Amino acid sequence: MYSKVGDVLASFAEFCVRTAHGIDIAGFDLRSLSASALIRCGSHGEHRHRGDTRGAPQRRARAEDEDRVHARPASRSVPVLEKLLRAGMNVARFNFSHGTHEYHQETLDTLRIAMHNTGILCAVMLDTKGPEIRTGFLKDGKPIKLKEGQEITITTDYNIKGDENMIAMSYKKLPVDLKPGNTILCSDGTITLTVLSCDPEAGTVRCRCENTAMLGERKNVNLPGIIVDLPTLTDKDKEDILGWGVPNNIDIIALSFVRKGSDLVTVRQVLGTHAKQIKLMSKVENQEGVINFDEILRETDAFMVARGDLGMEIPVEKIFLAQKMMIYKCNLAGKSVVTATQMLESMIKSPRPTRAEATDVANAVLDGTDCVMLSGESAAGAYPEQAVCPLPMSPLESLASSAVRTANKAKATLIVVLTRGGTTAKLVAKYRPRVPILSVVVPVLTTDSFDWMVSDESPARLSLIHRGLIPILAEGSAKATDSESTEVILAAALQKGVQKSLCKPGDAVVALHRIGIASVIKICLVK
C-alpha cells in the first residue's frame, strides 16, 4: 500500500517538475523539493470534545481565505459565538463523534440566536463519526502508562475495561487483518505498537510498545497500510444525518474516512430527495483514499485535506506533497477544498501563533485552498477568538500571489497596483514577478472636523527600496474609493505606464485594486 501511495505522489511531483509553473506559487520552484525535505506537520490535532462545534469555512466576497473554527463547550454561549462570528467564523462544524442529539440541538439553537443578533450568516456542517477505530474504556476511567518494550494484549471485546496489561479496540476484524510486524498507532500517533501475534479465535492481538506514553479512554487508532473492512456510513451516521441533520436543514455533511467514489453514491442514496440541498465534503484520511483520490473528486461536492489521520497513514515527509496534489486537483475541478489540522495549534495555550504556523496558513492559501480549519485552537484553547482573527489577514498575500500568477499566465507586460499605504504593492513585489510593478499610491483624505488633510508621499517613497516597484502618486479625490474614480485613476496609471515605456498600446496589463470592500484582479488592454 505504501508503494502505491508513493507512486501517486511521485507522479505528481514529477508533473510539478516537468511543468515547472504547473503549481508553483508565484515563483516558488517545486524543483527545489528534490534537494530538500519540506515538512509540514501532519499529526492529528483535532481535540474532539464532547458535544463541541467547529466553526468552518468563511467564504468572503473580498477574495479572502476562509476560517473554520472548532468551538469548545465553553464557547457555546451566545456572547462567545457572536464574537467568533464577528471574528470570521462562517460555518459551524458539529462533531458527531461525541455528544447527543439533544446537546447538539442546544448548540445549534444558541448559534442561530447569535446569527440573528449579529446578522451574520453561518452554515452548518455535520461531521460524521465514520468508520473510525478507537480504544476502549479504562478501569476507573484513569489514563494508563505504557512503557517502552512492554507487551500488551489488545482485545476486540469492547465491554472489557482496560489496564496496563490489556486494552480494547472497536474493530472486530483486527486479529484477521493484522499480521506480525504491522504497526498500530494510538492517540494521534503518540503511541506506537508493533504486532507480535494474532489470535482470530480469541479475538486478541499481542503487541509490543515502542515508546513510553500515557493512554486515555477512547483514543483514535490508525492502522497504516491496512485496508479495513468498515462501511463509510455507519448506522450511527445514518441516524445522525436523518434524525438530526435533515430536520435541522444542515448545509454540509463532512464524511470521515472516504475511501472510494462509490462511498459518496451510497450517501446520496441514503439522503434521497435531500441530496440536492445537502453538499457532501469528503475527508481522505488513509492511503486507500489517496490512491482513489481522482474518483472521489469526481463524486464529491467539496474536499477536506485532513492532515491529522492522513499524517499517520503516509510518511510525514510526504504530507506536504499530498496536500499540494489534492488542492491543485480540487482547483482544476472547481471544487472547494479545506486544509485542516494544526493550523494554529500553539494558540491552544498561547495568544500568538508561531512563525511556522503563520507560514503554514499562508502556504495553504498560496497552494489554493478555499478554507483553513481551526480545531483544537477553539475546542480546548484559551484564545478562541484570537485564533480566528489572524486567519483573515493572510488573503492579502493570496491576492498578491494571484496577481503575479495572472500576469505570468496572461503574458502581461506590467502589473498596476492601486494602494494607499503601499502594503499590497510590496506583497506583489515579494513574489518576484517577471514584469515591473507600477504602484499607484492613492492619497487618503481625512478630516478632524476642523481641517481636511491628505496623506503624505512617504508610502510612495518607501516603495523605492522594493524590487521592481515603480511608485507614482495619484491625484487625491474625495471620491477616491468610488468605482468611477478608481477607473479614472487606473486609466491615468496606464497612460503613465506608456509614458514611462513600461507598456505600449495593445499590451495586457494586470490591475489589482479595491472597489468598496471587494478586491479586484483584472486584465486590461492598453489603449
UniProtKB/TrEMBL annotation:
Gene Ontology biological process terms, A to Z: response to stress
Signal sequence bounds: none
TM spans (from-to): none
Domain of life the protein comes from: Eukaryota
Primary site of residence: cytoplasm
CC annotations in GO: cytoplasm
Entry keyword set: ATP-binding, Cytoplasm, Glycolysis, Kinase, Magnesium, Metal-binding, Nucleotide-binding, Pyruvate, Transferase
Enzyme nomenclature, EC number: 2.7.1.40
Cofactor(s) annotated in UniProt: Mg(2+); K(+)
Region: Disordered, residue numbers: 44-73
Pathway assigned in UniProt: Carbohydrate degradation; glycolysis; pyruvate from D-glyceraldehyde 3-phosphate: step 5/5
Record-annotated Pyruvate kinase C-terminal domain positions: 397-517
Biased composition, class Basic and acidic residues, residue ranges: 61-70
Start and end residues of each Pyruvate kinase barrel domain: 73-388
InterPro entries: Pyr_Knase, Pyrv/PenolPyrv_kinase-like_dom, Pyrv_kinase-like_dom_sf, Pyrv_Knase-like_insert_dom_sf, Pyrv_Knase_AS, Pyrv_Knase_brl, Pyrv_Knase_C, Pyrv_Knase_C_sf
GO function term, MF aspect, one: potassium ion binding
Catalytic function, reaction form: pyruvate + ATP = phosphoenolpyruvate + ADP + H(+)
Annotated compartments: Cytoplasm
Subunit: Homotetramer.
NCBIfam families to which the protein is assigned, alphabetical: pyruv_kin
Family affiliation: Belongs to the pyruvate kinase family.
Record's protein name: Pyruvate kinase
Lineage, uppermost ranks: Eukaryota, Viridiplantae, Streptophyta, Embryophyta, Tracheophyta
